[in-house]
Amino acid sequence: MAWLKKHGPPEHIILTNRLHSRHSAKLVAAFRCTVWANRKGLLHLAPALKARPFDHGDTLPSGIRAVEIGVLCPDESAVVIPRARAAAVADGVVRRGNGPLTFVSDPLLVDDPGDAPGVKRGLKAAYLKLANQPWDHLLMAHGSPWVSDGREALSAWARG
């Protein structure tokens, strides 16, 4: 909060899935920013957030584009942030330290271990579509960002 007060408050919070609303209420209360969430996940959010809906394919504030992932949950999205030359993803792919891209462990990825192979195939297919868009840096909800050639790294990983 102190960093945001010093460097400038956020105007918008764009959720890549409903589970990522954790600290949004504090930010909304402190800065009166607008929360944006995929329409398919709105019913799962606290009404106090007054989240505005978006659909896959929509252009959000600052030209940010919503991209469908939709494998782990119906509202799972990626966003392409043109001004930052970046894409941000929810929970399907992670990176530990400077290591390779990977999936989270199967128990965190799926409820039924038998579903893991199909879910992983679905995620990789969705990420290949994301990699067809113009961006350079990959931002993940969990793990270290992939700076510079993130699109190429995601594409290579999804093909593997």
pLDDT averaged residue by residue = 96
Helix fraction bin: 25-40%
Largest sheet: 4 strands, mixed
Number of strands: 9
CATH topology: Metallo-beta-lactamase, Chain A
Question: How does this model look, in words?
Answer:
This protein is an alpha/beta fold and 160 residues long. It is 27% helix and 20% strand. Strand 7 and strand 8 form a beta hairpin. Helix 4 runs antiparallel to helix 5 (150-159). The longest helix is centred in the C-terminal third of the chain and has 15 residues, at 116-130.
Quickly describe the structure.
With 160 residues, the protein is an alpha/beta fold.
Keywords:
three-stranded parallel β-sheet; four-stranded mixed β-sheet; 160 residues; alpha/beta; Metallo-beta-lactamase, Chain A
Write the layout of secondary structure elements.
Elements: H1 2-7, E1 12-14, H2 24-31, E2 34-38, E3 52-54, E4 65-68, E5 77-81, E6 86-89, E7 94-95, E8 101-102, H3 106-109, H4 116-130, E9 137-140, H5 150-159
Parallel strand pairs: 1-2, 2-3, 6-9
Antiparallel strand pairs: 4-5, 5-6, 7-8
Helix pairs in contact: 4-5
